Amino acid sequence: MSKPAVLLLNPPGDKLYIRDYYCSFSSKASYYWPPQDLLALSGLLDADFDVRVLDAIIPKRTPEDVLAAAADPALRAVVFTTGTATLKGDLALMDKIRAARPDLKIAASAGIMKFIGRELLDRNVALDAVLLDFSDSGLAAWLAGTEPPLRGMIIRTPAGLVEGPLSTAREFSYPVPRHDLFPFRRYRLPIARRFPFTVVVTSLGCPYHCGFCTAGAFGYKVRAVDNVLEELKALTALGVREILFQDPTFTIATKRVVEICRGIIEAGLDLSWSCNADLHALDEDKMAWMKKAGCHTVSVGIESGSDEMLTKYSKPITVDEIRAKAARLNAHKIKILGYFILGLPGETRESAEATIALARSLKLDIASFSVATPDLGTRLREEAVAKGWIPAGASFWDSSEFPVLETGGLGKEEIWALRQKAMRSFYLRPLYIARKLWEVRSLRGLQILASNALSLFRK
Ligand code: SF4
């Protein structure tokens, strides 16, 4: 007997949207990677379902294409990923699917479901369920007809909404995701050394609680090292050559990082990779192992050039430590992508200028300047609502677009002008341009560099 079909959907959009579980935004430098929740679900559902994947962002698909895919009578359910940047449009598409297929089960996945899942189900009759933890087994059970409560889900029932328990285990595993169903040959990352590239997750949430970041609200749990290595081996066999470890912070625990690195080396996996790292937790041991195991770049949240701002938002690092750790990464020949935030409440022209100066003074490969957005689940959002800067129910924005916060300090226009200034003063340095051109090794590399450069300055 054939297995029931389930469609894992990354909904279409008018921009290159990245729905990245904890946050969603439009890609400004033509980079693109797959949604980590849909990847994990493809493996979790594979044994019992005919898993179909429609990433409608790349290659670009229309709502009509999605409706055509949903019309297949063999389809039992649609599970879509979403985020604050696209929630309205995604829900409107689900209304259309529901109108065409009243029999389908429809479930939403995204980090924001932890905060607004119940409310969304109350307000949107098209939705049958939301996922609170994509790494858990509740979805497969629900699709198989098991009665709620089910782990990691809120489900609509005739008797009302039923919320299942969340796992409290510190470690998790899941079957190897069906990367072959995703258009992985089209994913792009400016820092990637090789292609094809894709994303792997080794931990969820973050043990820190930076005031502007939602990851700390999810607790912290880690994926079994053997389970991670099993996925890396499968990816190597599939021909993937580059990995982005897309954990909020891959580098928290030295023992785990070393075990994963040692596993990559001992298995002889031909992979180059990058990861999100926490500068404070990066020590000499980790840096050395990471470099040996193929790590060429770390993406680190530097956030601000002002100790006052770092302290105010509980970022566990000082400007001096940032300088010292960045120098050690340079010494290990690991490149750095630095993330900065401009326009947090309390920001002054001086602190913003200090941030721009810090970005220029560090030897960074890439710098990303975003504007402060009051994401669901953050202390910044609580502050913004309490002070009346945003309405309590507001939840639609894109962190790479024009500021949404008017904090009484710097105005939105000033923050945006500072962000544009930061971009220009970082990227338009003759030395930086010369270094980038010197590093280009192929025609493809030149094309990516030109495309990234153009898109970086597009409004
Ligand atoms: S360390 Fe990074 S991922 Fe963790 S809460 Fe802070 S900004 Fe978020």
What does the model show?
The protein is globular and about 60 Å long. It is built from 15 helices and 18 strands. It is an alpha/beta fold. The strands form 4 sheets. It has a 7-stranded mixed beta sheet, with helices on both faces. Strands 11-14-15-16-17-18 form a 6-stranded parallel beta sheet. It has a 3-stranded mixed beta sheet with strand order 10-13-12. Helices cover 36% and strands 19% of the residues. The chain folds into 2 domains: 5-163, Response regulator (Rossmann fold, 3-Layer(aba) Sandwich), CATH 3.40.50; 189-427, Aldolase class I (TIM Barrel), CATH 3.20.20. A hairpin with a 4-residue loop joins strand 2 (17-19) and strand 3 (24-26). The relative contact order is 0.10. Helix 11 packs parallel to helix 13 (412-427). It binds iron/sulfur cluster (SF4). Iron/sulfur cluster binds at residues 206, 208-210, 213, 215-216, 248-249, 278, 301.
